[in-house]
């Protein structure tokens, strides 16, 4: 009877989970639906033992019956360490077993790179990719996603990734990338995790929060079983209907946890009820203690070996006769303590909770001895474990064996392997472990260690690398870069601080400069500053030294920083010097980066042809040579410069190429900037809906705050142009939060200022608009900022012109107009777009002074007709029509104005630019022009414009006084009504106009020219 119960401790009845299984099956159906499929991403969470694995087994079996290919992989824990990419490697290995030809075809041409995840595909290069760690990792991620999409193009594929709570950081990053960028394929990806392990500081917690924000990811929380479900589970285990009292007791003690239900049911059946305590460890160890001592010993060995232990390795560590080992394993498997691994070549615990309890029960000396045995066995026969796990597991075994002499070299080997696989989080952990072991390892061991290579442009010592020992500073340099690449920037900052402290005792300016460069990058990324102070320290250290890669990189970074923060004539020479130094030391990628900066600065300085030629040459070289370290900058900076001089169509062509390259190389942040620049160029070309979609992409894909800030600014521009002021305010606030105050840049601040002025004007807050302008003028417009500054000056000049005649605008207006005019004279006009803006600002300032000269507006219109700016051209044509109609227009001028307004209205309606469309329509009504009839037909009579807005005669009179700045009491005195009645009229007017306050109503009335400015309030009433 006992044996019968043991073999059925896993319930043969799948209990409950109907709704959760329904969600999984629905995802499977959606993935398989349609010709291209719709990828599905799901997260399955629940406490340990609640039944996640059983649910996934049932779903996988059902999916396989439907013809899907199912590939499973689990996160592997070795001691306290996770293996890099373990679940993905296991899943790809399972796919290769089931679809060898299809996987080979999908991986064709990329085998060498994908071998970092699946060594069977090819012999990956043993030389670590030290210079392009970030780009290499991104490319590996992108190739993995595209591989899965290709395999799932013609068949349904289910990928199950278990135990994410053990996932290494590289696995977490790859999973986040997969969930964010899956586009096509009949693919279902389900990842499970132990929810009760996710404490506040658990590294999986931020990932879960990030994935929750993705609308494409569905999250399933697996709850405990109900009392009725526990009864059905116990009946299945015992193969008979249980006693209700027994079910009540098991339900009460297990709280509905499926695993605890099984353990309690078996224990109760065996008569061990009184021997159990409420202690979790006692509960979990009851079954282990019930098997023979030999089986218990094997269980202890397996518990310390990792999540899964290969049979051959287990045999080498156990040192038992083969028959005795098999007998012990048979007892452990029969008692459902151990299970054969999915591949059939090893053993694992049936539940990780039992493994943890057994491991925790080991004595300290016993744990060290077992790890030493594992390490010695693996050293004696490396073939005992898969090749891609060998170095990591050996390092873990020696480390937990507390043998520093053996552990230090093994840990360093594992760190090199992690870097080669772009598993930078694991590399950082291993390097920190190496630094921990450094002082306790024997001198003879340390002196025998050699650098594999030097990270990025970290300077070699100038000695023969073959005979020069590895230094502690070399470890710190590797760790600092690994921390930066994996996002552990605070840890990296601490490492650089310690390194610079050590370097105070040495005369090594190049190394010190290199560490200051790292700190500059890190403080910017952590929003702790703009990085200039750190770059200045590096620049001071390399001054006067012979040319070197470090020197060239410092110069290139300083020039790039100055271009964005403090542009000026000196920066051009700095960029040229960076190019020269990079050429002297054959640092190709530093040279190309510096040349991009140089080309952009040349364009800003007015040498547009030469600057663009320089940038185009770099772009072509980068694309031809596949230089991933520069591909992002080349396809972001050049289109941005083209957009800035008005060549938007040309920019879009390069941005399309940039999207392809950044997606192929997996450069998420660079791809986000490409999308953002695309949004700006599409806006300029009048493709506003596409512009919004591109901005959404920029915010979704980008991992940094700045692409999100740029996306919010673009949303605010669109909302303002379409008349959604509340949305513009919300998005502007979001942009300011994203950008923060730690790293101000003109390219971010000036577009926000332009939007802020527009919002203030739309809400009737002219003084606030002036305050925004005053802040911008106070900060100044350095050379190179004209592409942003012209738009700010135009918004301010238009605001002053529109406010002419308002009492609030009179005081100080002349001074504001003169300040705008003075600022405009300081801006460059070397590009046709800048020339057009200069003309427009000049004419708007004359309009603000009460002068409307049609000939000047014709000049502005002619300038914009040759540019790719339909919205700007529509606004200029509206103003030209207004000027024609204001100057004693005859029939010819009225005909021209009519045609201009028709063109403007057509553009406004196409774009959804409601304020412009309303202004055009109102001007036409005031001038008694008909915009929807054939030329030559007489214009029908137009109703009073105020009545066209739904206002009564009395409300029209009240609005005139509101526009003149009168209070309710003043309105009441003018119209001989009570203040309360005046207040009611004002409320009705605000509701009809769809505005939120008196100032906004006054601004709307003035902007739409409801009342001629020369008409006084008394005349209006009289």
Quickly describe the structure:
This protein is mainly α and 1022 residues long. Helices cover 67% and strands 4% of the residues.
Unreliable stretches (pLDDT < 50, length at least 5) are 1-9, 124-131, 272-279, 933-944, 1013-1022
Q: Specify the helix fraction band.
A: 55-70%
Main beta sheet, described?
5 strands, parallel
Q: What would you call the structural class?
A: mainly alpha
Shape: globular
Count of DSSP-assigned helices: 52
> What fraction of the residues are assigned to beta strands by DSSP?
under 5%
Arithmetic mean of pLDDT: 85
Radius of gyration: 36 Å
Strand order of the largest sheet: 2-5-6-1-7
State the end-to-end CA separation: 109 Å
Question: Can you give a write-up of this model?
Answer:
There is one protein chain. With 1022 residues, the chain is mainly alpha-helical. The chain has 52 helices and 10 strands. The strands form 3 sheets. A 5-stranded parallel β-sheet has the order 2-5-6-1-7, with helices on both faces. The chain has a 3-stranded antiparallel β-sheet with strand order 8-10-9. α11 (244-254) packs across α12. It is globular and about 110 Å long. Residues 1-9, 124-131, 272-279, 933-944 and 1013-1022 have low confidence and may be disordered.
């Amino acid at each position: 009877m006992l044996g019968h119960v043991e073999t059925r401790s896993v319930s043969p009845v799948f209990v409950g989970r109907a709704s959760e299984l329904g969600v999984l099956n629905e995802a499977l159906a959606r993935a398989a639906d349609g010709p291209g499929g719709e990828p599905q991403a799901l997260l399955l969470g629940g406490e340990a033992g609640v039944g996640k694995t059983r649910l996934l087994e049932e779903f996988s079996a059902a999916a396989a019956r439907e013809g899907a290919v199912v590939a499973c992989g689990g996160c592997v824990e070795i001691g306290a360490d996770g293996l890099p990419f373990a679940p993905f490697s296991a899943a790809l290995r399972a796919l290769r077993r089931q679809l060898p030809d299809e996987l080979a075809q999908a991986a064709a041409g990329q085998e060498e790179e994908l071998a970092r995840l699946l060594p069977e595909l090819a012999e990956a290069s043993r030389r670590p990719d030290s210079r392009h760690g970030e780009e290499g990792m991104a490319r590996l991620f992108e190739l993995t996603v595209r591989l899965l999409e290709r395999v799932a193009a013609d068949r349904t594929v289910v990928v199950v990734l278990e135990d994410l709570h053990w996932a290494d950081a590289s696995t977490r990053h790859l999973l986040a990338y997969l969930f964010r960028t899956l586009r096509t394929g009949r693919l279902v990806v389900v990842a499970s995790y132990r929810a009760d392990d996710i404490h506040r500081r658990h590294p999986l917690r931020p990932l879960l929060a990030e994935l929750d924000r993705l609308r494409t990811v569905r999250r399933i929380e697996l709850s405990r079983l109900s009392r009725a479900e526990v009864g059905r589970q116990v009946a299945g285990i015992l193969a008979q209907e249980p006693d209700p009292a027994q079910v009540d007791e098991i339900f009460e003690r297990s709280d509905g946890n499926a695993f605890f239900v099984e353990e309690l049911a078996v224990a109760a059946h065996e008569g061990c009820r009184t021997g159990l305590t409420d202690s979790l460890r006692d509960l979990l160890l009851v079954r282990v203690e019930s098997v023979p001592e030999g089986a218990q010993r094997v269980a202890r060995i397996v518990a310390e070996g990792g999540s899964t232990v290969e049979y051959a390795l287990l045999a080498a560590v156990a040192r038992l006769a083969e028959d005795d080992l098999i007998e012990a394993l048979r007892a452990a498997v029969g008692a459902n303590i151990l299970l054969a691994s999915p591949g059939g070549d090893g053993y694992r615990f049936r539940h990780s909770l039992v493994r943890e309890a057994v491991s925790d029960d080991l004595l300290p000396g016993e744990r060290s001895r077992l790890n030493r045995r594992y390490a010695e066995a693996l050293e004696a026969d490396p073939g005992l474990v898969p090749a891609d796990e060998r170095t990591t597991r050996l390092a873990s075994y020696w480390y937990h064996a507390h043998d520093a002499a053996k552990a230090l070299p093994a840990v360093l080997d594992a760190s090199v392997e992690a870097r080669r696989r772009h598993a930078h989080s694991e590399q950082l952990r291993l390097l920190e472990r190496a630094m921990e072991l450094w002082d306790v390892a024997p001198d003879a061991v340390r002196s025998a260690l050699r650098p594999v290579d030097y990270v990025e442009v970290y300077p070699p010592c100038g000695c023969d690398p073959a005979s020069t020992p590895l230094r502690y500073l070399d470890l710190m340099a590797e760790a600092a870069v690994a921390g930066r690449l994996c996002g552990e920037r605070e840890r990296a900052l601490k490492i650089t601080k310690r390194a610079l402290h050590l370097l105070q005792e040495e005369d090594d300016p190049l190394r010190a400069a290199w560490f200051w460069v790292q700190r500059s990058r890190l403080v910017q990324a952590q929003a702790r500053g703009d990085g200039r102070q750190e770059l200045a320290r590096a620049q001071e250290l390399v001054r006067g030294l012979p040319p070197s890669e470090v020197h060239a990189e410092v110069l290139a970074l300083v020039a790039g920083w100055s271009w964005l923060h403090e542009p000026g004539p000196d920066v051009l020479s700095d960029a040229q010097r960076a190019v020269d130094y990079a050429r002297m030391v054959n640092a190709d990628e530093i040279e190309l980066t510096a040349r991009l900066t140089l080309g952009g600065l040349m364009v800003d300085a007015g040498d547009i042809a030469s600057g663009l030629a320089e940038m185009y040459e770099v772009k072509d070289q980068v694309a031809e040579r596949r230089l991933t370290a520069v591909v992002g900058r080349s396809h972001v900076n050049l289109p941005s410069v083209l957009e800035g001089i008005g060549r938007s169509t040309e920019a879009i062509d390069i941005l399309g190429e940039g999207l392809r390259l950044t997606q192929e190389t997996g450069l998420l942040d660079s791809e986000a900037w490409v999308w953002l620049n695309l949004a700006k160029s599409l806006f300029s070309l009048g493709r506003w809906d596409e512009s919004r979609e591109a901005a959404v992409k920029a915010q979704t894909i980008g991992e940094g705050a700045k692409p999100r800030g740029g996306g919010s600014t673009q949303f605010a521009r669109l909302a303002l142009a379409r008349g959604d002021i509340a949305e513009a305010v919300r998005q502007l606030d979001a942009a300011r939060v994203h950008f923060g105050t730690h790293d101000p840049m003109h390219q971010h601040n000036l577009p926000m200022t332009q939007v802020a002025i527009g919002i203030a004007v739309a809400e009737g807050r002219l003084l606030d608009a002036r305050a925004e302008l005053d802040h911008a003028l106070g900060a100044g417009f350095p050379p190179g900022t004209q592409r942003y500054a012209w738009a700010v000056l135009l918004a301010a000049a238009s605001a002053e012109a529109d406010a002419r005649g308002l009492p609030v605008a009179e005081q100080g207006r002349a001074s504001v107009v003169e300040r705008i005019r003075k600022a405009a004279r300081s801006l460059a006009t070397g590009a046709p777009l800048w020339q057009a803006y200069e003309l427009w600002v000049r004419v708007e300032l004359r309009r603000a002074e009460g002068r409307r000269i049609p000939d000047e507006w014709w000049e502005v219109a002619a300038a914009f007709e040759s540019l790719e700016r339909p919205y700007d051209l529509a606004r200029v044509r509206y103003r030209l029509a207004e000027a024609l109609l204001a100057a004693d227009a005859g029939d010819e001028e009225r005909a021209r104005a009519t045609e201009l307004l028709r063109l403007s209205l057509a553009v406004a309606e196409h774009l959804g630019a409601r304020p412009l469309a309303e202004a055009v329509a109102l001007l036409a009504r005031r001038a008694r022009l008909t915009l929807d009839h054939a030329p030559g037909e007489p214009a029908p009579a137009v109703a009073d414009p105020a009545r066209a807005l739904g206002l009564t005669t009395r409300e029209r009179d009240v609005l005139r006084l509101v526009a003149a700045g009168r209070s309710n009491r003043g309105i009441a005195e003018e119209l001989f009504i009570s203040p309360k009645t005046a207040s009611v009229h004002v409320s009705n007017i605000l509701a009809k106009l769809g505005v939120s306050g008196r100032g906004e109503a006054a601004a709307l009335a003035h902007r739409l020219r409801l009342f001629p400015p020369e008409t006084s309030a008394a005349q209006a009433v009289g």
